[in-house]
Amino acid sequence: MMKAAGFSLCYEQAVDCELRVEPLDDEYLSSFVMWSGGNVSLEKVREVATEEYGGRKIVPYNMTFAVFKKP
Question: How far is the C-alpha of 39 from the C-alpha of 25, rounded, in Å?
Answer without folding.
Answer: 19
